[in-house]
Design goal:
Layout lengths: L1 E4 L2 E4 L10 H19 L10 H11 L4 H12 L4 H6 L2 H8 L5 H19 L12 H9 L6 H11 L9 H10 L11 H7 L5 H14 L18 H10 L4
Antiparallel strand pairs: 1-2
Helix pairs in contact: 1-11, 2-3, 2-8, 5-6, 7-8, 9-11
Bound molecules: iron/sulfur cluster.
Amino acid sequence: MRQYHKGRLREMPRAPIWRKPKKNRRRIVDAVCQRLLAFYGKPRLGNPRDPVDDLVFLVLSNRTQFETAKLVFNSLKNTGSWDAVAQLSVKTLERKLQIAGLANKRSRQIKRALRRISTDFGSCRLDKLRGWSEAAAQDYLTNLPGVSNKVAKCVMMYTLGFKVLPVDVHAFRVSSRLGWTTRCRADECHDDLEALVPPELRYAFHVGCICLGRAVCTPHRPQCLSCPINQFCVYFEQHEHEFENQT
Ligand code: SF4
C-alpha cells in the first residue's frame, strides 16, 4: 500500500488487522462494534434529521465548538428557510457566522452550496438523494462547495439512510490504535474502514468511536484500563506495561 507521508510517496505497512485470517478479522470487528454499541448505543450526537440542516450544521461544526456551531445554526434557521438564507448577501451571512470563525470562507461556501441545491432540486431540499445510489449521492454532495468526504458521508449516514462510514478525528485515532489502519490522515481511510466494518455496524462504530474518543481514547494519555475494547487494541497490547503501576 503506497501513500503520501510528509510529502513523499511511501510504502506503508498493512494494518495489523489485515494480517489476520478473514474469520478472526470478522470476529474482532464484530466484537469491537458490539461492545461500542452496548456502551454508547446509537446517539445522533446533535445531528439534525433534515439533510440540508445537517449539512449546514456539519460545515459550521468543523473546527468550531459544538455550542457555538449550534448557536450560529439556530440563528440561520431563524431566517425562515434555507432558500431565504441562500438569498442573503455574503456580508449579512458573514456577520451571522462571525462567532463561529472562518466567516469569510464559510459564508461563501454555504451560500453557494444552498444556491446550487436550490437550482438542482427546485428548493433547498436534499430528500430526493434518498432514492439515489450511494455513489451518486456521495458524488453530488462532495461536489457542493465546502463539503468534504467526511461531511458528505455524515449527511448520508445521519439523515439519508445510507450505510456508510464517516471517519472523523476520533474514528481515525481509535482505528489507528486498534491496528485497523496505518493511513496518515482520516480522510484517506474511509474506503479501508468500509471494507472492514460491515454496513449494519458502521453507524455504531462511528458514533461509538466519537464517544470513546472524547472520554476514554483521548489524544494524550488514553484511559486504556477502563476502555471497553482494550482486549482488541494493538496500542494497549504494546503499552500495557506502562499501565501496570496504575492497577
Ligand atoms: S485500549 Fe486505549 S488506545 Fe485502545 S482504543 Fe481503548 S483507550 Fe484507545
